[in-house]
Each structure stands twice: as C-alpha cells, then as structure tokens.
Amino acid sequence: MDDANEVIGQPNILCNADTIDMQFRTKRQFAGKVYVKGSYNKPECRVDYSSKTADGRPKGGIRLNHGACNMDRQRMITPDGMMFSTVLIISFHPLFVTRMDKAYHIKCMYREAARTVTAALDVSNLPTEAVQSDLPMPTCSYTIRSDQLDGSVLKYARVGDQVVHRWECNSDEYGLLVHSCYVEDGQGEKQMIIDENGCHTDHLLLGDPTYVEALNMAYRESFVFKFADRVAVRFQCEIRLCLKDEGGCEGITPPMCNRKAPPTETNSISDVNPYRMHDQTLPIKRTKRSNAIFRPKDADLYSQTVYVLDGSQEGESNKDEAALPLTHEYVPQNGVCLGPTGLAWMATFMSLALISIISVAIFVFYKKVSR
C-alpha cells in the first residue's frame, strides 16, 4: 500500500432512476476496493480496481441498484419523497481498514412530482371555493434514550440496560401512530417487534408504545438486547400521520391492542413526564380547515445505531465463578480431591488436632517439672 495515495476532492454521486453511482479520483493508480459498509463479504457489494483510463488516471466507481446491499429505503415527509442511502468505503489496503481509507454516507432523494388535474365542464358558472393545505408537515424523529424519556441519546450500551424508545413529531396539529417496527443487525437480518396495527409482537423485546395526550409523541421503556454474535442493533418503524382537527385521528391512534383500552400514562416515566404537563396546561391550536383534503400519510423512521456489549470482563469473571458448584466433591481412583466444603472440614479437624497435641505437650511438661 502506498501511503502517498489518497482520494482527490469529493466523489461524484449520480442518483439515477434505478441505481446510484459513485465515481472518484485518486492521486495514483488505485488498486484497492470499494464496498458497502457491513456487506464486504457479498461479491455484489464490492468492487476491485486495477485498470486506468486512457489518460492514465485511475478508474474508480461503483454502481448499486436501489435497495441492494442493505441499502436504506426511507419514505420522507419533509421533503415529500423517497430517500435511498448507504455508506460506501474506499479502501486502499487489500485486507485492512487504515488511516488512508475514506467512508462516505451517500444519500439520494427522489421527490414526488406534483400532479395537477384539470377538467372542462360545459355548465353554468358556479362560485368557486378555495381549499388549500396551509399547515407545514412536521419533522419526526426516532431516538433511543438512556434510562429515561429525556435521557441522552444512546450510542453504546450493555445487554440488560434500561432504555426508552421515543417517537416524536414537532407539531401539535398532527397525531402519529407507530407501527411495523423491526430490529435489524445491519447485515440483512431483521425481526418484527411491533406489527402493522401498532401492537407488540414480543413483550420481552418491546411492549406497546404509550402515547401522550397530544398524540404527537409515543414512547416505551425497554431493556437492551442484541442478535447473537452481532455487535450493533438498529430499529426501523413506520409512522402514520393524521390531522387531529375535527377528529381526523379517531380510529387511527392510539391503537387498540389485545382488545384492551389504549395505553395510558400511568407508569413511572409518565408520572413525571413534562410533555404530559404541557399537554394539560396549553390548549392545542386549531386551524379552520377540512380533513377531507388530508389523508393519513405514512413515513419511515430509523433510530440511531446502538453498539451493544455483552458485559464487562470483570462481571463475566464473577458470573463464571458464581456458577461453579461449591459443594461438589469428586474422589478419583488415585487420590483424594476435596471441594471447598471438604477443605473447610479438613481445616477444622486439623486445627482441633493441633490444639489437642499442644495441650498434651504442655500437660506433660508441667508434670515433669513438678517432680
């Protein structure tokens, strides 16, 4: 590997109709690899380079089909459209990641085209009424917090740590429904944990979300878990937005799970939830508009990636020692092997025997002296 080689400028990203291309230049002949982060072992997700262009410059680039190599596909609200994103790594060393390598988070946004429908009617003139949607779409987020609702956004954790999943949209006009949630390991494996109705599928992993009165935030306490032999976890959920004005969220959120009443704020986090106090003391602003012009809208939310450790080395060592059978005794054919209990009894017996021997010796000594 040549330490003097490096990427020149920024890569050129082409967002095509069905593919994403990345082209780049380096100072010297590039003979390394370009691959999708987390998918190096998949041949279709990496490219080796050893040729160069007619002018002697290195030829470098990669083309990925939409959705290939665990590419993220996210429906967006603001702006309205579809975003495809992935992380590409330019590696100069044939085997290892070094200081010369570069990682780029590639995002391609495909916006939905506005459609206008017109029709000519040969009828008498009628008065027209202007109806428009003047409410801005909210910005929504999905974060995993440490310990409590307003805890720090988590990046590293241990299995069993308490966390809070938090879904939120920054608008008092819209309500949200959290549904179709998956946990994924970043390498293609994923498992559903909240179904399409907004109800949990495995209470040990994540329970039913709790919704605040304003319906613009939901949350759920949980404990950290991970896939076997995997380090990272990330969560993906769909949210459905509804306009609360004139009952536009009725029948949409909160969900009815297991034919029980919707989750209410009765747990420890809810008792001190500042957002609930906000909802009770401040009235929700109403806008004069018709719900007929707004249909419930779905979008995708991703949490941050959390890197999960099994536990500290010290904790694992103590755990292993605690698991040893303390009273087990085994007698082999060619000798005697005592467990901790047997050793304790042997120590007691030897102590008593030593005390007895010393007592007899003292008695004999004084008897000889008295003569």
From TrEMBL:
Q: Where are the transmembrane segments?
A: 343-366
Instruction: Output the SMART domains linked to this UniProt entry.
Output: ZP (SM00241)
GO cellular component terms listed in the entry, alphabetical order: plasma membrane
Q: InterPro entries attached here? A: CUT_C, CUT_N, Cuticlin, ZP_dom
Q: Which superkingdom?
A: Eukaryota
**Entry keyword annotation includes Signal:** yes
Please state every residue range assigned to the domain named ZP: 14-256
Q: Does the keyword Transmembrane helix apply?
A: yes
Membrane topology label: Single-pass type I membrane protein
A single MF term (Gene Ontology): structural constituent of cuticle
Q: Which residues form a coiled coil?
A: none
Q: Where is the protein localized?
A: Cell membrane
Q: Which UniProt keywords apply?
A: Cell membrane, Cuticle, Membrane, Signal, Transmembrane, Transmembrane helix
User: Where would you say this protein principally sits, based on its record?
Assistant: membrane
Its recorded name reads ZP domain-containing protein
